[in-house]
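My convention is simple: the sequence line spells out the residues, with the fold written below as integer tokens. I include a record here:
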Amino acid sequence: MDIKIKDENCNFKMRVAGMFIKEDKVLGVQMCHNGFYCLPGGHIHVGENSEDAIKREVKEEIMIDCTGAKLIIIIENFFAGNDGKKVHEICYFYLLEGDIETKDFSYTENDEGVLKDLEFKWIKLDELEKYKFKPTILIDKLKSKNYNFEHIIFDQTK
């Protein structure tokens, strides 16, 4: 069961996302033709730690095994969802290692009975601003190649 809580005012979720970086590019994903790119990942399950969650999500979405995962940033993200409702998201971002090719690809994931079209694209680090990339607070960290641990509270609702 995913860690998600919904009430009349706000949706809360705990997620993981992974950064594969090769040849000065990062692997991004656009889900269900939603018009923006983010890092591959998904929800943490109840009783699952974040490192196991990112390895599971990568196996489900990209079909490879991670050979390394280093936690480099936790972002407490507050934003308005597509329905205008406030979203409170805690996301653990991992720098990942694994045997992955640097070519774009698409995949349809069966996520608990819901089919989701995933479009994976290798984006040049110095061109991230040209894409609708979320969360935007990650762009500078990715471009700087600063892999020291950080905790950021990013409130886009104010």
User: Anything to note?
Assistant: Residues 4-155 form a domain with the Nucleoside Triphosphate Pyrophosphohydrolase fold (CATH 3.90.79.10).
